[in-house]
Specification:
The structure is a single chain. By secondary structure, the protein is of the alpha/beta class. The chain has 2 domains: 277 residues, TIM Barrel (Alpha-Beta Barrel), CATH 3.20.20.70; 126 residues, GI Alpha 1, domain 2-like. Helices cover 47% and strands 11% of the residues.
Length: 419
């Protein structure tokens, strides 16, 4: 079972261990993640955002209770012990309803928090940094802390003493930076200290001293990010200035967002710098897309079916709200980013009925065939092909083995930290 106190203490002791937080609701990503957790014995945190899952269903159509039930059912089918899993709510605040007046948005955020903690989410990121209708895009520390404490009070009333909290207002944009020219500036240690001081005062003003003792993580920007066509690498040579912000906070560690696409050695370095949770999401669904597009090339040679990318382009153009505002440049540049951008906005469309039908039909054709090894080698990376063949040896069909091989490759460096 998860012991967040112990895990934070291990990270703070310099052991170089950290939890990975899997931020995806896609069944294929979750299946590969749970299988890897089972085989390695590593604990993972499965997280859902307020846009993915909420009391109204979110874009997945799932309430918090339904999300947990589906993941646990998948874990049971894979013989993955439930004790290896914890559930987290990511970016929980009013932002899903930020187009509404502040009080209306906060009332819905309260209902969402209540639904999350009553469903069994034990880790909650209180993110009230974005403004609502009539407010600045980013509100100040004081208002963000006041709203975060208000939501914590709701969580404590709904499920007393069961929730551990993540706080912090220097939150990278969910899903990565919006353009490649954005600079990445690490959080100033004094700003981190100020955030903790202001947020603690807001908790205590509402009598939430016990809840504050379960604030275990602070979101800060360590100096890494990804944009649509660019990954800003973490500078491992830079001194660890941020840890000074935790000098008098032994029960709190950092949480890193947007760690996707970083080189594997970065993760251990972040753990040594007191980052106890490393979040990854788009890199996993990006790997899923790589696998599906590779399989579609193989399928095209065998069956003559059009490439899956043609259908996905149609769906992207039919749903411009998914990617506009994230991808910029010439029409041709945007077309390429719709499929291959690191922000992986295409992930929102795999649940569309036409996409699901096309993927299912492709997988069925491939699983009924025996593609020649040289054909597979033409489109799969050597490492993925080797791993997929090993997974086939355990009884997995070809399509599932290839998908899992790609997702595993993106997740394994995190798992190897062995929280």
């Amino acid at each position: 079972m998860f012991d967040f106190n112990e895990g934070v203490a291990r990270t703070r002791a310099g052991t170089g261990t950290a939890w990975v937080s899997v931020c995806s609701a896609h069944p294929d990503v979750l299946r590969a993640s749970l299988r890897l957790a089972r085989d390695s014995g590593a604990q993972i945190i499965v997280e859902a955002t307020s846009n993915q899952v909420n009391q109204f269903g979110g874009y997945t159509g799932l309430t918090p209770a339904q999300f947990i039930a589906e993941v646990q059912a998948l874990a049971d089918r894979l013989d993955c012990p439930r004790g290896l899993l914890a559930f987290g709510g990511d970016h929980l605040g009013p932002q899903a309803w930020k187009s509404e007046p502040p009080e209306a948005a906060m009332e819905k955020a309260e209902g969402m928090i209540r639904a999350f903690v009553q469903a069994g989410f034990s880790k909650v990121h209180l993110d009230c940094s974005e403004g609502c209708a009539g407010e600045p895009a980013q509100v100040g520390d004081a208002l963000a802390a006041e709203r975060a404490a208000r939501l914590a009070a709701v969580a404590e009333a709904a499920s007393p003493g069961t929730v551990s909290y993540v706080v912090g207002t220097e939150v990278p944009p969910p899903g990565g930076a919006r353009n490649d020219a954005e600079e990445v500036t690490p959080t100033d240690p004094q700003a981190a200290r100020r955030t903790l001081t202001i947020t603690q005062a807001a908790f205590e003003a509402l009598g939430l001293q016990d809840a504050w003792s379960r604030v275990h993580w602070l979101v800060v920007q360590p100096g890494l990010e990804f944009a649509p066509a660019h990954v800003h690498p973490f500078d491992r040579a830079q001194p660890d200035a941020l840890s000074a912000a935790l000098a008098d906070r032994p029960g709190i560690a950092f949480e890193a967002h947007s760690t996707d696409y970083q080189a594997a050695p970065v993760f251990a370095d972040l753990a040594r710098r007191n980052f106890a949770v490393l979040k990854v999401g788009p890199a996993l669904s990006f790997a899923l897309r790589e696998a599906l597009y590779a399989l579609s090339h193989v399928d095209g040679w065998l069956s003559g079916a059009p490439h899956l990318g043609l259908l996905m382009e149609e769906l992207m153009l039919e749903n411009p709200g998914v990617w506009q505002g994230h991808y910029h440049g010439t029409p041709e540049a945007q077309r390429l980013l719709r499929h291959f951008g690191y922000a992986d906005r295409i992930r929102y469309l795999w649940a569309q009925p036409r996409a699901q039908q096309a993927v299912s039909a492709m997988n069925a054709r491939l699983d009924a065939a025996t593609p020649p090894l040289p054909l597979l080698a033409q489109y799969l990376t050597p490492a993925a092909l080797t791993r997929a063949r090993a997974l086939q040896g355990t009884g997995l069909p070809l399509s599932q083995a290839v998908i899992d091989a790609y997702v595993e490759a993106a997740l394994r460096p995190y798992i190897e930290l062995k929280s």
